[in-house]
Amino acid sequence: MRLVYNITSVISTETRAFNNKNRAGLNLFTPTVNIFRDPQWGRGQETPGEAPFLTSEYVYALVQGLQRGEDEHYLKITADCKAYNAYDLENWIGTDRFHFDAKISDQDLVKKCIHDAHVASIMCSYNTINDIPSSANQFEIEMLARKESLDNKTIVEKDIDRALERTFNVLTRLGWFDPPEQQFYRQLTKADDDTPQSRKLSLESAQDSIILLKNVNRSMPLHIDPLINKKIALIEPTANATESMQESYFGKTPFLIDPGAAIKAMTAGKLIDVEFMNGCKIKDPDESGFSVAIELARSADIVILFGGLDQSIEGESVDHTSITVPDIQLSLIRQLEKVVRSPIHVVIISDSGLDLTYIRDSPQFGSLIWMGYGGQSDGLAISNVVFDQYNPGGRLPITMYSASYVDD
Question: CA 237, CA 143: separation in Å to the nearest integer?
Fold first, then answer.
């Protein structure tokens, strides 16, 4: 979890630098501590995966990276474990998160964030837990989170006083009432934002999220020299994706490099012809771009198809109704399969598990790469993997179920 800690340490440093210029607060609504139980959950992308142990270790490293730093006298910023608890549904076939009642046992409840990492705050989930609204759940909030009990069922003056005391306690721990010149974190400036080290970590994290799921006859990675005087066809819809590759919540980035631009940059000056074609969009059923994309692919020596999802399919308030590759993309994939003679390489960008058995089982597809939304360095990370500058992983944080899972 070294990478998680290092990344969140950079985030808290940059947050402090922005706060010193009155550009940001010091309470971040992260981490999401819920388990990615169902691949149809739209906000699963905000979690580290479906494994409870992995999630607990991730949460601990993340909270430590955000809250601890060079000055042990103060909190660097305050993290916020959310959504407490049993939150894994947005809006699925008539049931939304405001009316969902999770049935769980006490053993399922997350404690690592609160008791071990000493997170400064928690956010209640929208849903009901065992017939009790999360925000009014005495066992959840008082016994597990605060280790104390309420002595009445209405909000009275002493409850408001207690809430105020807690607020000022956090502000004190952040150094709000002490002289700025005596605090290390108050000296952080714009120079501490977007440093070369931060950019290096951004690329490292994007590369670490890339998984090689299939590689027939070692057809991936590609090498520059054998491609001289040859053509590479990049078939979209995600080859030129930028903003949509930043997950559901993001700030203003210093740059965004899409996969296509990164591949063109990698091959620049090498006498390699790299051409784009938007064969289709993420889910729009329009097939008008198919013929031109297929013709480009037919004429190319190497074909890389970029597909996947975006926030219109998975995100807050948006659950999946299926876990298949969108129909329009699958249709393009099948038509390319019929006409391209060389092995087709497929890159799927999503943060949910998808049924990729068709691509896995067809001999026409030489390689299959999957990655999550990689942020500002997404394109460069993919390019580095494609051209042997970085070795991808082989273990997924989520299960890739077959399409029939949603009907079982």
Answer: 49
What are the φ and ψ backbone dihedral angles of 29, each rounded to 5 degrees?
-80, 70
Same domain, yes or no: 144 and 77: yes
Task: Give the distance, in angstroms, between the CA of residue 110 and the centroid of all CA atoms in the same chain.
Answer: 20
The closest of 184, 172, 62, 77 to 120, measured between CA atoms, is 77
**Are 97 and 43 within 8 A, CB to CB?**
no
Residue with tokens 């601890």, as numbered in its chain: 68
Query: In terms of residues, how long is the chain?
Result: 408
| Structure tokens, 373 | 């939304």
Contact criterion met (CB below 8 Å) for 95 and 88: no
CATH number for 217: 3.40.50.1700
Per-residue pLDDT tens over the stretch 72-84: 899 999 998 876 6
Beta bridge partners of 368: 214, 346
Distances (CA, A) of 282 to 65, 306, 309, 313, 350: 35, 10, 6, 9, 11
Nearest CA to 38 among 46, 30, 53, 49? Answer: 49
Query: What number of other Cβ atoms are within 10 A of residue 115's Cβ?
Result: 12
CA 371 to chain centre: 9
12 and 134, same domain (yes or no) = yes
Spatial neighbors of 139 by CB under 8 A, at least 6 apart, are: none
The angle, 0 to 180 degrees and rounded to 10, between the axes of the packed helices 196-208 and 2-19 is 140
Which range (100-114, 198-212, 226-240, 273-287) has the least confidence? Answer: 100-114
CA distances from 357 to 36, 314, 345 (A): 21, 21, 15
Same domain, 157 and 26: yes
Residue that the structure tokens 């494609």 belong to: 386
Same domain, 289 and 368: yes
282 vs 287: CA distance, rounded Å: 12
Are 247 and 374 found together in one domain?
A: yes
Say how far residue 250 (Cα) sits from the centre of its chain.
10
Name the β-bridge partners of 315.
318
Domain around 160 = 2-191
Whole-number average pLDDT of the chain = 86
Q: Which residues pair with 234 in a beta bridge?
A: 276, 304
pTM over 0.70: yes
Q: Are strands 95-96 and 91-92 parallel, antiparallel or unpaired?
A: antiparallel
Peptide bond into 179 cis (omega under 30): no
Map residue 21 onto helix, strand or coil: coil
